[in-house]
Amino acid sequence: MRWFRRGSAKQKTPGVEQALVDDVRDRFGPHLPGAFHDQAAAVVPLLAGDDGVAAAAAILREFADAAHADLWAQAAELSRRTGYAFPVDRANYRPLWRDTQGQLRWSLFTLPAQLHPYIQLSAAATVISAEAKRAVRTTDTRALLAHLFEILDLVVDGWEFARVRPDTDGATLAHRLILAARDLRNAMSDEPPLPQPVREWMRRNTTIDVYDPASPAVVAGFNPGREMREALLA
C-alpha cells in the first residue's frame, strides 16, 4: 500500500529529526497492545514533511548500523573461537551467513536501537516509498538506498539461513523495503547498480510459505526474486 504525505516543503529543523525518531521509538513497540501492522500505520502520519522523511531515513540508518554492529561482534567472537576469519560485508551479508553455517543469531528483534522491524522500520519504508522525491532532496540518498537494501538482505537471510519463520508481518516488511528501494531509485537522477544479494535473488523463482503470526497456518506465498525483478528491473 502506498502512503502519500502532505508535509510542507520547509527545510529540516535542527533537532526535530532525532526527536521524531525518539518519539516513535518510545510510543510504539511489541510490548504494547495492538497488531504490528496497526502500530506501523499509526507511525506513518507522524513522519510527515521534510523532518519526517529525515526521521524515517534516520530510523533505517540507526537500525542498519545496529544490525551491522551486532553481526560484526558475533563474527569477531566466532573468529576468536574457531581461528577462521569471517568478513562482514554490509553490501552482502549472504556469504557470512553461509560460511558460519548456522552459528550466528538473527537478532533483529532484540537490537539495542529498540526499533522494531515490523513497526518503526515498516513505517519508515512506507514513508520513503511515498515521499521518494522529497527524500532525494533532503537526505543522503545513496546511503539511504544502501540501508534499504542492507535491511532487505538481513530479512531474507533470516528466512533462508536462521530459521526465522516468514509470517505476514515479515513479508509485508520485505515488500515495503522493495517498493521503497524501487521508488527511491526511480526518483534519483541516476540509478545505482543493484547489490549482489538482490541480483542473486532475482535469479531465483522460489515462493516462500508465509504464516499467520498467531498460528501455524500458511496463509500466503511470497516470491522475493519475482517481487524484486518486477519492481527493480521495470
Task: Give a verbal description of the structure.
The chain is mainly alpha-helical and about 230 residues long. About 60% of the residues lie in helices and about 5% in strands. It is built from ten helices and two strands. The protein has helices at about 15-25, 35-45, 50-80, 95-100, 115-130, 130-140, 140-160, 170-185, 195-200, 225-230; strands spanning about 210, 220. It has a two-stranded antiparallel ribbon with strand order 1-2. Strand 1 and strand 2 form a beta hairpin. Helix 2 packs across helix 5 (about 115-130).
Quick summary:
By secondary structure, the chain is mainly alpha-helical. It is built from ten helices and two strands; from the N terminus they run H-H-H-H-H-H-H-H-H-E-E-H.
> Which word captures the global form?
globular
Which structural class do the helices and strands define?
mainly alpha
Largest sheet: 2 strands, antiparallel
* Uncertain stretches of 5 or more adjacent residues: 1-10
Any idea what the radius of gyration is?
A: 17 Å
Strand order of the largest sheet: 1-2
**N-to-C SSE series?**
HHHHHHHHHEEH
Residues in helix, %: 55-70%
End-to-end CA span:
19 Å
Strand content: under 5%
Strand count: 2
The helix count comes to 10
Mean pLDDT: 93
